[in-house]
Write a structure and sequence with these properties.
8-stranded mixed beta sheet, 13 strands, 37% helix, 3-stranded mixed beta sheet
């Protein structure tokens, strides 16, 4: 692989994938939403290249070996004449309406399905030999065992239904076009660039302010994976994954959710009272969320290398610098 395209490149995982690819000497075309505040997640590229990402009249910028291209996710076909026939792999992370009311609105999630298929065709027209899409734990619905593609899928949210539909339709379209296809279902990922509404980042920000939080009993069995490790998994799947195969991306290790909360607290201020057990569980609360990484390891040899304690320290440092 010499050249790759990434949608959602300014998001947490997309930006980590961009960095991983660049570190491997791979040229990156980073597609970002116009005027996105998340462009700060790519500022490390400017520092390393010694240049600023100034967008020209064509809404593109060159930063070292990365080309930044502004484009709304739902207008990807407009890029057909900008990318050229020179790329090897396409990483699709772009997805709208991931939280809030839009998460369960069928019409909005249908836009994401169409955008995924547009991404498949853009990948083909850009000469890509491989396409990988970012799936979600939401595709499974509520289950009690470790997550693998062999499990039945019964999503209960519009978001999960749309992700599963996008997976199956994109796989079908890639087969027709002769491109290798993979889908990687991400479990709970955290790291630099995380959204403020996630449990990890909201807890970090509150604890850094010295605020007392209120949690459920937090006895869910959970699997958290650091964003840098997630990025490496995606690259390994593109390079070594089996065509038409979906993988579950997680650490493969399980802990009680409250153990993660205490680890965050201990890394910030061990004296903080975190209020475990002061809230009720949400309706339809998932109590077991752990990845079965057997297939991922067998096919790619990939294993995460960052402990939660190490990853959370890096995430906290980022949060302090990006208040």
């Amino acid at each position: 692989m010499k050249d790759a395209i990434i949608t959602g490149a300014s998001g947490m995982i997309g930006s980590h994938v961009a960095k991983e690819l660049l570190q491997r000497g791979i040229n990156v075309t980073a597609i970002v939403r116009p005027m996105s505040e998340k462009l700060r997640n790519l500022e490390w590229a400017e520092a390393e290249a010694g240049a600023a990402a100034l967008l020209g009249p064509d809404k593109t910028a060159e930063v070292g070996k990365m080309r930044i291209v502004e484009c709304n996710l739902y207008e990807l076909p407009s890029l057909r004449d900008k990318l050229g026939w020179e790329h090897d792999a396409f990483f699709h992370f772009g997805w709208g309406y991931t939280f809030g009311t839009g998460r369960n609105e069928a019409s909005k999630q249908a836009e994401n399905i169409k955008a995924t298929l547009d991404a498949v065709h853009l990948a083909y027209e850009a000469g890509c030999k491989s396409f990988i899409g970012a799936g979600s734990q939401a595709e499974f619905g509520i289950v009690t065992g470790s997550l693998s593609d062999e499990l039945p899928k019964d999503p209960i949210t519009g978001y999960g239904i749309a992700k599963l539909a996008a997976c199956r339709l994109a796989g079908l379209e890639c087969r027709h076009l002769g491109m290798k296809f993979n889908w990687a279902r991400i479990l709970s990922c955290y790291g630099e660039g995380d959204n403020d509404y996630t449990m990890v980042m909201s807890a970090i920000r509150a604890m850094l302010r010295g605020e007392r939080m209120q949690f459920t009993p937090a006895e869910q069995v959970w699997d958290y994976i650091y964003a840098e490790d997630t990025a490496k998994a995606f690259v390994e799947i593109v390079e070594k994954g089996v065509d038409q195969k979906a993988y579950t991306v997680g650490s493969g290790e399980k802990r009680l959710l409250k153990d993660y909360i205490y680890a965050i607290r201990d890394a910030i201020d061990p004296t903080l009272d975190v209020g475990i057990g002061e809230r009720d569980y949400n309706p339809d609360q998932v109590m077991y969320l752990v990845a079965d990484t057997t297939e991922l390891v067998a096919d790619t040899g990939y294993k995460p290398s960052t402990t939660f304690e190490d990853g959370i320290k890096k995430t906290i440092e980022w949060a302090r610098a990006n208040k």
